[in-house]
Amino acid sequence: MKQTIKVLLVDDHLIILDAYKNSLEQLSQVNKDLQFEIDYAKNGDTALSKFEKNIPTNPYDLVFLDIRLPSHNSKITSGEELAIKFKKLHPSSKIVIISGHYDALLFHKILQNINPDGLLFKSDVGMETISDVVYNTLNNIPFYSSTILQLLRKHYSSNINLDQVDKLLLYEIAKGTKTKDLKNTVPLSQAGIERRKRYLKEVFKTQKQDDDALINSAIKKGFL
């Protein structure tokens, strides 16, 4: 007898949704005991509405959720916020977070606030990885892609200890925020920001180099 797995795919890019769908369909062709009932949502509000509507009769077994959601025409603009709502509404649904790139500060928040059942990059999506996600998460085994694990190991094995302000400052510099504007997001005075930046350059051994060198060093060590 076939096992039907109900899946919700949440992403605003059609090409990504198609990649998930194709991978799941390939998996069902390889494993004849599996079939997938697939729904889509391109923004947070639609995803939440579908999730809530299906809870009483046929809740989702598995949700693939882009951590960055579009802000237009939706009250919910954060994948993190949506994942937390899903967890509260129906804890047995497995939540797999998808990210387009590595962001150490964001990943720390994801692990701390959501503790997702799965975590992978969009570039990881393919039949083999999706197969691992399905088999592991539905058997209550968390699945993090090999790419994610390598970056997390690099980050947590480092002997560099940064506090939240350090991480936020690195993140803002990497985004290209101008020095004069950093005080708008980093809870330090302008002088404090300059001191903290000098400290970070010492930690990452880029004292006599520019901000790009600091960011490149932080990326290599898994902090961005």
Structural commentary:
This protein is of the alpha/beta class and 224 residues long. It has two domains: 3-155, Response regulator (Rossmann fold), CATH 3.40.50; 164-220. It has helices at 14-30, 44-54, 79-89, 104-113, 127-137, 146-156, 164-175, 190-203, 211-220, and strands at 3-10, 34-41, 62-66, 94-99, 118-121, 143-144. The chain has a six-stranded parallel β-sheet, sandwiched between helices. Helix 1 packs across helix 5 and helix 2 (44-54) runs parallel beside helix 3 (79-89). The mean pLDDT is 87.
Shape, per Cα inertia axes: elongated
Number of strands: 6
Instruction: Please report the first level of CATH classification, the CATH class of the largest domain.
Output: Alpha Beta
Structural class: alpha/beta
Strand order across the largest sheet: 2-1-3-4-5-6
CATH superfamily of the largest domain: Response regulator
Largest sheet: 6 strands, parallel
- What is the CA-based Rg, rounded? 20 Å
Strand content: 5-15%
Order of helices and strands: EHEHEHEHEHEHHHH
Distance between the termini: 46 Å
- The unreliable regions are none
Looking at CATH, which topology of the largest domain would you report?
Rossmann fold
Number of helices, counting only DSSP H or I runs of 4 residues or more:
9
Blueprint (SSEs and pairs):
Blueprint: E1 3-10, H1 14-30, E2 34-41, H2 44-54, E3 62-66, H3 79-89, E4 94-99, H4 104-113, E5 118-121, H5 127-137, E6 143-144, H6 146-156, H7 164-175, H8 190-203, H9 211-220
Parallel strand pairs: 1-2, 1-3, 3-4, 4-5, 5-6
Helix pairs in contact: 1-5, 2-3
Main attributes?
alpha/beta; 9 helices; elongated; single chain; Rossmann fold; 224 residues
